[in-house]
Design goal:
Shape: elongated
Largest sheet: 6 strands, mixed
Low-confidence stretches: 45-50, 240-246
Distance between the termini: 49 Å
Structural class: alpha/beta
Number of strands: 13
Length: 331
């Protein structure tokens, strides 16, 4: 057993020190008499009353001492071993970068029904992907005209899923700062050097805003050892919505493929929801979640036990004191 705040145990001799060094109460007025015999009555000097007068104060003193010791022990927060647990181990820090520019509102991707917007399909499949990453630390960056850290790296996967669900189109502007998003991810992952660091980048366009080009940001990411997996989404130009538009004509596949290759990642084109889901499953295989398991024995708080014992003894002491008052009044 150990204590979270062991220095509080130094308070154990405090009552003895106070009794030893402080003057006793009631010393101002003292009545001196030659003998106590004339003041002795039958209730206090009889054979039946004498043993009770000697034992009660002694027992109450012992109860008060135990109460103090138990209170100090509980205040020091005793800790004991809990049941053995096994936890998955992953040294992977995984950042998602999601394009939320205006073009992500194009409804040209099918998943299991009518065409939905690219962002709706991307959010839904990314949420499933995050659910499978138990044991990884996951974060979320959204980018449009600018790049923002939406959710810092965390083991709380529910928070990441909620962030994905609540990310609207145009949150970061209507253009595409692809290079800035990569640079931001590299900066946020830099503090985790020594771990496996991965960026999963989803976009449907080309770099049209920001301070850095994808090539410049990719060079920085490669120097930092960051691996980037990229997926470009949107239907082929020939599969437009029939009004002559080319929904993914701006997708800069050459740059995205080069970016992935230079950093040791992969690039895939997703023209429907199924292809996008296949991309994330491929990432699962390339970046397995658990590298193993580790057994650990957490600690548990033990302070309720001495605290409960102190309260029980305090109730006993109060009950004994209450019973002793009528006898003292009769004396």
């Amino acid at each position: 057993m150990s204590f979270l705040w062991p220095w509080l145990l130094a308070l154990l001799p405090l009552p003895w020190l106070l009794r030893r060094w402080l003057p006793p109460a009631g010393t101002a007025a003292v009545l001196r008499v030659p003998s106590l015999a004339p003041f002795a009555g039958p209730a206090t000097c009889g054979p039946a009353a004498r043993p009770q007068g000697k034992t009660l104060p002694s027992l109450n003193f012992m109860l008060a001492t135990f109460i103090w010791v138990l209170l100090v022990l509980s205040a020091a927060r005793p800790l004991g071993p809990a049941a053995l647990r096994t936890l998955p181990v992953s040294g992977r820090e995984l950042m998602l970068a999601l394009d939320v520019s205006a073009s992500m509102g194009t409804a040209d991707l099918r998943l299991d029904g009518p065409p939905a917007t690219r962002l709706d399909v991307a959010r839904r499949i990314a949420q499933d992907f995050v659910t499978r990453r138990d044991g990884d630390r996951v974060g979320l960056i959204v980018f449009g005209k600018q790049a923002y850290l939406h959710t810092p790296l965390t083991f709380d996967l529910n928070a990441v899923r909620d962030a994905l669900a609540g990310t609207p189109i145009g949150l970061a502007g209507r253009q595409t700062a692809l290079g800035d998003a990569i640079a931001l991810a590299t900066t946020r992952l830099r503090e985790f050097r020594g771990s496996e660091r991965v960026l999963v980048l989803l976009t449907d366009g080309a770099n049209t805003a920001g301070h850095l080009s994808p090539a410049q940001a990719g060079w920085i990411a490669r120097r930092e050892g960051l691996r980037i997996h990229v997926v470009g989404i949107g239907t082929e130009p020939a599969q437009g919505d029939g009004d002559g538009a080319a929904p993914s004509a701006d997708l800069d596949e050459e740059t995205l493929r080069e970016l992935a290759n230079r950093t040791g990642g992969i690039y895939r084109r997703a023209t429907d929801g199924q292809a996008l889901a296949d991309f994330y499953r491929l990432v699962d295989r390339l970046e397995p979640v658990a590298l193993g398991q580790v057994a650990m024995r957490p600690v548990r708080e033990l302070y309720p036990w001495p605290l409960a014992a102190a309260l029980l003894l305090a109730a006993t002491l109060g009950w004994r004191t209450r019973l002793a008052r009528p006898e003292a009044a009769r004396a």
